[in-house]
Amino acid sequence: MTLQKNKIKMALAKGRVANKTIDRLKEIGYVFPDYSKESRKLIFTDTTNTLEFFLVKSPDVGTYVEKGAADIGIVGRDVLLEHPADVYELLNLKIGQCRMCVAGFKDTQIQYNRKLTVGTKYPHIAKNYFTQIDQPVDLITINGSVELGPILGLCDCIVDIVESGSTLKENGLVVLRSILDISSRLIVNHVSLKTKRAQIDPIVEKFKELAF
Ligand code: PRP
């Protein structure tokens, strides 16, 4: 399968936001009949033949768009902050809304005049936050199931995404501080925005319906 030149190519972060995004795209007229959560296919074309999306790991969305392999991309603000890319951030799509938080056991003291060990998938965001509040930290990068960190004594607390709060609750942890509001963003390649404006503008206008 090859990507068609006349369609707008969109990189989409795999995972739970992808499923939500594809559902929301249906509401604004972009239907991808071949897509299913179970499919191993990576590239999908919509029924109007104007938009083609492919699924990539979330930190790679910015890379595909920055390099022009994708014209546009949809990715969380958390990912863009952690893995900055030279792209235009055009819209807050308000999909996948959640918070970046410091979490741990409820009696964990932040800013306690001692160095904290912090487990996270987001070392840059965590470092920036603790620098701002003058809290010395040792950061440990963990790639998933971050909530295990405090439970197993790997770290004092974590910096992670909280959406429903179920993962924290079911593991006996609580939010200690809220750091940032997160949601999905529409990003665009600098060159595509100039050279494919006629194709991109109507798509952006449609996507605006999702943002309100
Ligand atoms: C994310 C995040 C939390 C969880 C929060 O993990 O890292 O663990 O979701 O969601 P909740 O507040 O709705 O429970 P993800 O599901 O991406 O899996 P991972 O732990 O493998 O990264």
UniProtKB/TrEMBL annotation:
Keyword annotations: Amino-acid biosynthesis, ATP-binding, Cytoplasm, Glycosyltransferase, Histidine biosynthesis, Nucleotide-binding, Transferase
InterPro entries with a match to the protein in the record: ATP_PRibTrfase_cat (IPR013820), ATP_PRibTrfase_HisG (IPR001348), ATP_PRibTrfase_HisG_short (IPR024893)
GO molecular function, one term: ATP phosphoribosyltransferase activity
Pathway this chain belongs to: Amino-acid biosynthesis; L-histidine biosynthesis; L-histidine from 5-phospho-alpha-D-ribose 1-diphosphate: step 1/9
ATP phosphoribosyltransferase catalytic domain segment(s): 58-208
One GO location term (cellular component): cytoplasm
Signal peptide (residue range): none
EC number: 2.4.2.17
Reaction(s) catalysed by this chain's protein: 1-(5-phospho-beta-D-ribosyl)-ATP + diphosphate = 5-phospho-alpha-D-ribose 1-diphosphate + ATP
GO biological process, one term: L-histidine biosynthetic process
Cell location: Cytoplasm
Record keyword Ubl conjugation present: no
Functional note: Catalyzes the condensation of ATP and 5-phosphoribose 1-diphosphate to form N'-(5'-phosphoribosyl)-ATP (PR-ATP). Has a crucial role in the pathway because the rate of histidine biosynthesis seems to be controlled primarily by regulation of HisG enzymatic activity.
Family: Belongs to the ATP phosphoribosyltransferase family. Short subfamily.
Subunit structure: Heteromultimer composed of HisG and HisZ subunits.
Domain notes: Lacks the C-terminal regulatory region which is replaced by HisZ.
HAMAP family: HisG_Short
Protein name, per record: ATP phosphoribosyltransferase
